[in-house]
Design a protein that fits this description.
- Four copies of one chain form a homotetramer.
- Chain A has helices spanning 60-63, 170-184, 210-219, 291-294, 334-350, 356-365; strands at residues 3-6, 33-35, 40-45, 73-79, 87-97, 111-116, 133-141, 144-147, 150-156, 160-166, 226-227, 230-231, 243-247, 255-261, 271-276, 279-288, 302-304, 315-321, 369-374, 382-388, 414-415.
- The first copy, chain A, is α+β, with helices and mostly antiparallel strands.
- Chain A has two domains: 3-304, Jelly Rolls (Sandwich); 315-415.
- In chain A, the strands form four sheets. Chain A has a six-stranded mixed sheet with strand order 1-3-16-5-13-17, with no helix packed on it.
- In chain A, a hairpin with a 2-residue loop joins strand 8 (144-147) and strand 9.
- Chain A is globular.
- The N and C termini of chain A lie far apart (45 Å).
- Chains A and B meet through helix 2, strand 11, strand 17, strand 18 and helix 5 of A and helix 2, strand 11, strand 17, strand 18 and helix 5 of B.
- Strand 18 (315-321) of chain C pairs antiparallel with strand 17 (302-304) of chain D, so a sheet runs across the interface.
């Protein structure tokens, strides 16, 4: 309901809009809009690939997705009076797909997608096990969704922005670039890479032009990782009703937002694991003066999650420990333990007729929970993953009669490397 | 209500009971009790240190805790007809502290404890930041608890067994010992160690005696880590009403249980992070013949968590990424990201008057949730930790007026290394 | 997102729209729109008084509200193939206030209202105790709301249609008119009346005109009561995600909807107790052929409520029994028991500084739960009312230190009879 | 865990115990035990009929149940320092069936019962439709229960005391007796009666004897109805973790408790609708001095319900209005509307194979919710009843394929009038 301060026209490309957004982090990207503390406003958001992924039955688009162009962010929004050292309060008042556009070429126009990215073009959590590109299309019906590529499931979306944050200061940006370059230097040829350095190609920097554009493009940080400013945190609980507190590093805070998700499992495990969509987000901003010192919050977001998500009473859970598939014992490695728990869940679901890729895509998109269960019991971390049983239209828990078999349908479209 | 098949006398040591339990994993530890599929029965469980930790205001007992003696497990329980390849169904019917013993020297007799263990005697998740031993005592009142060492909080316990599992086969045991030895060999002098090898000293092996005791004691695996048989998973959601499916590796399955927790946060981050207690657990067992193949569950527990835990509507959450405190960028390391999120939460709580150790102990014991939020956004994993705001008797969310200050009381007892 | 099949222009009166709705029930009101089973579509809905209640600080509009003009319903929607004996499935896909109109003269344009109606113009549940007209205005911010007339509270709306249903058959309509006339005849002069007979004045009957209009206006049932066709059930749990099954009494089912509420307490106790608004509702319809017989559902709605409402973990509850305020013992009268429980809650809230009218208005509008607790313990029914404590920004439970006192602000506007 | 202050021996009758309880309300029944504010203690509680109902397949015991002997209450407990005008805080720390007695002749020893009482011996909510006596036995397994008399359902108990309260003052008792006598006088021969007058026969009055016994027995109020002192409120949400505030009418407050339920639906609609059991309850008491005036709570309990009950995400709901089965329109009668909603639910369940009596017994015992939905829409109240779908092991919602048919088994034992 709030005033639309940042419109996007669905018939035009992200770079041809009234306000041109950005796809890099830099303190010198000019604010597109200025708001005051207490203001409520609507922001249109483009899906992260600006329409490169289509509502069809091929994974070619995922195979060749233009990774240097992401994420299409709306903003920056300058907040009057916000100064470094403050905390920026951001209330997520509402969020949804593209209003009143029930079909169209853009994700968010009545549909969304989940992708498994090929190892040499993005990769993902389990890329060693899933090296090729796959895709699933999800159709929206109100707040619920189904997929022709993954039959037998239906669930309510817990919509959230995958990416939101404030602009880094010049110092903070330098810190990012330095530490990530140092990591890349340890294995520069790795596929997928260890990190993504600044990339002027395909950079979009708001209203910047000319030499200033070139300077900023050469310095600006990529948007893939979450960092001190929030960023691509992919926190599935940042739903409607959430209040987030971001550190302010530059005058005006310069808030940006993008990468809306219709739904996501904890971890967003398939890289493009959420159900990606464009749409709108209604925000309210406010400022806690000197909040970073008052509360000792100098980096990363603190937040009060919303309380409108669906509640599930029954879950089927899987556990994993930090032993590799080859049997090597690792030391307290929760990343590995979570990988093993997810693989257990995937293997389990194949007993019901799903392909491994369908199961993987489902775990990325459905509202599963991924938990740190034990992180101190040397040498094994224990991670657990919880799947709400109500999303399946068949019984999913183990019984003496064995698993039912569903018709997996046409399956998830695949394109090999 | 079910028949008490495994009694413990609170006035006697763990080794002086009618049934002597065990504190190592080995296929040849004889079953203490045999039950049939469908049976319901009560099991008494001793707290993991058999009374070495006291209800007092000193951390000396934690400083010197006898780690080679843990965990005091009840069992094994042989289940008639269970064979390798089956899945063992274990229903947790009920669980609680020591019934009708409201005070006494054993944790579980109306009280429990949480400990931060010294780096050279156990360590813990954040041992680099908390090298000394600390302790908090929690008093039970029905299903709620408070601590004189951490004022201002009160919460409902979500009681669960930290450790439950089936006996490994001889092959599986060999695999464990081999892979853990290989890890230890990479840094044999490390403090705390990378893993714990078999340790005959302080081994308790049920009814075994003589040369058989010595053989088994030399081979048997330590109980600290979770492994393929379940074990010390510290899954805080294994509450009353849960149904767990364990792989069966030996005839009779040989189920054992121990390490009861009155409450725990996801991760059990202070090593002895839960509120430790002895007490009882009521179980029902059943068997899915050939279940390991039917459902592809060949390792680690699958489970349906109980639905009786308290529901919280409001949470304060913290996020962290895989950058070290020194600013080094690590690659998709969720263990580190969770560490950073927990440190953020600890730092935050100190603004209200808590010491860092009080905050750390609280996060281990209270029903916090630890989530994998982003595990694919190279190079930064994002982890989040959620604290229910209702456990505090003062407002805990950031506001423009700044944090209230509480009286931290006597604080958590400390004993330096 | 679905296609807008039933638009309303906020700048025009309800009777000047492309489709003119209706405010009476009759089988012969022509369908405005025809849809097919499986169709999803958006419907605009006008607030029940078509703008007669204003966003101001006077209750004059409530005092003089045009009760003969309600409820402004959108529809009827004919569903192809639906026949008497079928069940009509209605999925509530989404619902909200007037999109993108953040301010304006109509409830639903960024605000809503709750009213206590005067005894001689509407009355209400506690009209003997509250004979005068009062009003509270609620401002919307995303899915939350606050009121300048009731300070100290904020809550998340659980939006729902207060009124939805299918058209009655001619026989059913006759039954209604006969039984309600018989009731009125027992005390025809009562104020407020026992029921409302057909009223041609102010009748709106879709596209009907001329003699047919006059015939139908003389026969058509008022929309105030819930009846066999659903109707004004005021079920606060018919939120987004709900699936409702309505009996079909006429060809095409002829579904109509209206009386949207931003929030409501169980019972809608102040008559106009919900937060009234206009807005939109997205529906999906389907048909179960012969469903009335298949499931024995021949009257009143059966439904699966949505699962997106906020979850509250803490409630303060009040109880009442079927003894009148004068001390007269009634026999198992849950209506009275609920009245007494509500009065207890109102009295309680005045200890914190609220006026009785503020408390009454709050109980109508906030997501309170009203329960039948005991209906068999002769002679006293027991009813209970539950208030979520989190909606208050001050502590509301009894403690030894007594209630805090808030500033009740300007209070609720009043207009005496 | 707290000290057992009020033991009962399962092998002895209620009147042969160390402490003899009571089954009437009177200020002069002497306190059995005195406790202090802050004390925690365990109380044993006998099932309300002291063993008259058996674990068998006949309803003869229900047919002939000794109604003049109920309810067997434990207490009174005097609280030091509590005076008229105070509020008594009662925390329900824990509650359960008879510990460690898994089988036996008393309800609570591993089993419980639900009964439909014959019209001329108790009656019930729907006694006009169910005039004969029926019974269902429920077997307990941990916190879940199943019934051989109602197959296809399983649910988690939300255990609670059906009856708890403080002693009335002499004045309050007189008020009760006067107003109930006045009601009885309006139709003294009614079956079932409108209310129950004092009944010396079968009175149990603690330690009273001789003339004092006779005097008190002649005056003391029956325990069936809930009244100003709390009493038989049958509030199913008074579960573990609840805090109740009772008005204090006599020195010491004289708290009593009984009528434990393993589970109950809102309304306890079959009269003996809950799953009746004996067992234990752990309480903590405290006093708010002058609390009745401080908070304006002079009658009926105020309470904070516990938050440990199971959460259900999916419900099937039924609605009803205040029109009689004969088609007579009543004015805003929620008791009738709830009756109609319950009848709709019962009729619905018979489509799946249940008998009407099985359905009725189930609605009394399972954790259904009964809500006041609309109480102001003249002339029809609207009431709704919600059944959690997860309690059935077959799909219960309407679909195009029609209802599945279950085997109703042996059915519910019946004994005709």
């Amino acid at each position: 309901m709030p005033e639309l301060l940042y419109p996007l026209d669905s018939s035009k490309r992200f770079t041809d809009q009234k306000f041109v957004g950005h796809n890099r982090w830099h303190p010198d990207i000019p604010a597109a809009v200025t708001v005051r503390p207490g203001d409520e406003f609507r922001v249109h958001v483009r899906e992260w690939f600006d329409g490169a992924i289509h509502n069809d039955d091929s994974a070619d688009d995922v195979r060749n997705a233009p990774l240097s162009s992401v994420h299409c962010l709306s903003g920056p929004f300058a907040v009057e009076g916000a100064e470094p050292g403050d905390l920026l309060i951001v209330d997520i008042l509402d969020i949804g797909p593209v209003p009143q556009e029930d079909s169209g070429p853009l994700a968010g126009q009545g549909w969304g997608y989940t992708g498994i990215f090929a190892t040499d073009n993005g990769g993902g959590f389990l890329t060693e096990h899933f090296p090729d590109a796959y895709k699933a299309i999800w159709d929206f019906s109100g707040h619920t969704t189904t997929s022709r590529h993954i039959p037998g499931v239906k669930f309510t979306g817990i919509m959230h922005p995958g990416l939101m944050g404030t602009a880094p200061s010049a110092d903070l940006l330098s810190t990012w670039n330095a530490r990530e370059a140092a990591l890349i230097a340890t294995d520069p040829e790795r596929v997928p890479p260890l990190a993504l350095p600044p990339e002027p190609r395909d950079a979009i920097l708001g209203s910047l032009t000319g030499p200033e554009f070139d300077r900023v493009a050469a310095e600006a940080a990529r948007t893939a990782p979450p960092r001190e400013n929030g960023g691509n945190q992919d926190i599935k609980n940042l739903t409607r009703g959430s209040r987030v507190f971001y550190p302010v590093f530059v005058d005006g805070a310069k808030l940006s937002v993008g990468d809306l998700h219709f739904s996501q499992g904890d971890g967003e495990i398939t890289f493009c694991g959420a159900i990606e969509m464009g749409g709108f987000i209604d925000l309210r901003v406010d400022v806690i003066k000197n909040g970073m010192q008052l509360y000792g919050v100098t980096e990363n977001a603190v937040f009060l999650p919303g309380n409108e998500g669906p509640v599930y009473s029954e879950w089927l859970a899987f556990s994993g420990t930090s032993v590799t598939l080859d049997g090597e014992q690792r030391y307290l490695d929760s990343q590995l333990a979570f990988e093993r728990a997810c693989l257990h869940a995937i293997d389990y679901l194949t007993n019901f007729g799903y392909s491994r890729e369908q199961a993987y895509l489902l775990l990325g998109a459905a509202p599963i929970e991924g938990r740190f269960s034990g992180v101190v019991d040397i040498p094994n971390s224990c991670a657990t993953v919880y799947i709400p049983t109500a999303i399946f239209d068949f019984p999913i828990a183990p019984t003496a009669s064995g698993p039912v078999r569903i018709d997996p349908g046409i399956g998830a479209p695949r394109t090999a490397r």
